[in-house]
Amino acid sequence: MQQKADGKITITNPLDNKIVVIDVDMELLAGPTVSLGTNTGNLSSYDGGTTTATLYNLVGQKIVLNTDAAASMSTATTWLTASDSNVTEHTITVGTAEGAGSSGTVTFTKADGGKTNITVTLKDLAITTLANGNFSSVTGDADNTFQDATTTGSNAKITMANAAQSNSCTLTVTSPEGITVDDSSVNSWLTVSTGEKQSASGGYTNVVTLTLQDASAHTGSITLKNAIAGGGDLTVDVEATAPVTP
Questions:
Q1: Distance CA 116, CA 73 (A)
Q2: For residue 75, what pLDDT is reported?
Q3: Which of 3, 66, 146, 224 is deepest in the core (most CB within 10 A)?
Q4: Model pLDDT, residue 25
């Protein structure tokens, strides 16, 4: 039980004008303690210190939470599905995608009326848009270049000028949970490696290395595939230009 100072009652005796002041305290019923449940294959998280659940901004994303006593779960947040009765395991589901950073409230209520409110926040799940600073030419001709999607009006593009075998460059890719690469359209002339994902602020980075296998002209594309199903992929066009002959 928690005690809350609620106010005072003043009683005045009309016969002698004596005044009696009575302090009134209200006992607040303690709500259940909420903790992270078993979330196999689930990328959602819960911070008990801030009572905040974080889910990716994708329809169907879930989080399982436990309460230390049976409780009923409810919410007035329209984009969340959070409703059950008198249980200790609770599942919250994103019903409709909102803007990343959106937040709502879920309430857990015990049979005696004790309540605990938690915040549910949605997190961006997209691969970070590639910019010039993500590109680096490792070996080969210094004319290797990168154009972002805004410049091309379509996909980001790498041009490996004056193609030479072993000419290589890198892209540093930031994403919430890491990436893989589909290089099926270019693997006859280009080797692509994603490297191990490394922890970064708010997610992970992969350094993707592209290496030419010959000195011929080629065009194709690679697809950076989001580790979060439904999170959206990025396509990067790749062109190798034939060596300039003297």
A1: 10
A2: 97
A3: 224
A4: 67
- The model's pLDDT over 5-64, given as tens digits with 9 standing for 90+, comes to 467 788 888 877 888 887 776 667 899 999 999 998 778 999 999 999 999 999 999 999
Please give the backbone phi and psi of residue 214, each rounded to the nearest 5 degrees, phi first: -150, -175
CA–CA distance, 208 with 202 (Å, rounded to integer)? 19
> Distance of CA 198 to CAs 28, 188, 230, Å?
46, 28, 22
- Residue 66 and residue 88: Cα distance in Å, rounded? 5
User: Tokens representing 156?
Assistant: 């980001």
Half-sphere exposure of 53 (CA within 13 A, CB side): 31
Task: Show the tokens assigned to 94.
Answer: 């994103």
Alpha-carbon gap, residue 136 to 121, rounded angstroms: 35
Q: Which helix (H) or strand (E) holds 151?
A: helix 149-152
Dihedral pair phi/psi, residue 152, rounded to 5°: -80, -25
Half-sphere exposure of 111 (CA within 13 A, CB side): 6
Angle (nearest 5°) at CA 112 between 107 and 114: 35
Residue 4's pLDDT band, with cuts at 50, 70 and 90, is very low
Q: What is the DSSP letter of 133?
A: G
**Contact call for residues 70 and 111 (beta carbons, < 8 A):** yes
* Structure-block tokens of residue 121: 């926040």
Tell me phi and psi for residue 165, to 5 degrees. -60, 135
pLDDT digits (tens, 9 = 90+) for 124-151: 999 999 999 999 987 655 678 999 999 9
C-alpha span between 97 and 59 (Å, rounded): 6
Residue 207 pLDDT: 96
* Residue 123 bridge partners (DSSP): 56
